[in-house]
Amino acid sequence: MTGYRPTSRRPIADMFRRTAGGAVALCLRFDIHPDVVSYLSIVASAAAAVCFWQAGSHRWLLWVAPVLCYVRLWLNMLDGMVALASGKASPRGEILNELPDRLSDVLIFVGLAHSGLNAPLSGYWSAILALLTAYVGVLGQAAGAQREFGGVMAKPWRMVILHAGAWLTALWPAAGVPRPGELTILDWTCVVVILGCLQTIAVRLRRIFAGLAAKAGRAAR
Question: CB under 8 Å to 218, separation ≥6 — which residues?
């Protein structure tokens, strides 16, 4: 039991948190380390990426990929809950909680980029902006302000938007066929993610600068 408490944790809806109660108890009973749960989130993301990658040939995979994205989110929540409940939370654990998350973002959007259902650049730019969005949030904490989770396109909402685009494409296959000079549903999905990430980055930077200014003001008194 380390007694360590993370300095900042992502706000999670109580309803979503309650779904993990039984899983936390199971992990404690069988002494499953929270790092193992973090690594499993990468496995779920890799499976989602493969589904997106192959969805151009097998459209039914568009129904499966978003479900795996939600499994990824659930595991991302579960690892922190297990760490706190087991007393295994640590600074090392915070790093291992963040790195799989970033790798997961890249895997999912790169898989989408190579699906053939949208322009590769839209998928890659979504991956880049997702990484930058998370980086800015962590950067605030590193600079001495608090970790920022605000903005319209935080991690859970990126998965919700991607889910909507994938299922709409599955429902209307003709709308997912790339044509010269036209954007597919998944292209528009990526545009929404990219614009949302830009707004989120701006919001987080503004809050970080405000927090740093307030901290400097208190120190000058």
Answer: none
Show the tokens assigned to 123: 């998928």
Against a cut of 0.70, is the pTM above it? yes
CA dist., res. 181 & res. 14, Å (int):
44
Amino acid letter for position 33: H
**Model confidence over 14-26: pLDDT tens digits?**
677 788 889 999 9
- Alpha-carbon Rg for the chain in angstroms: 19
Dump pLDDT digits (tens) for 141-191.
Answer: 888 888 888 899 999 999 999 999 999 999 998 877 888 889 999 999 999
- CATH number (2.60.220.30, 3.10.310.30, 3.40.50.1370, 1.20.120.1760) of 14-220 reads 1.20.120.1760
Question: From CA 30, how far away is CA 23, in angstroms rounded?
Answer: 11
d(CA 111, CA 47) in angstroms, rounded, equals 10
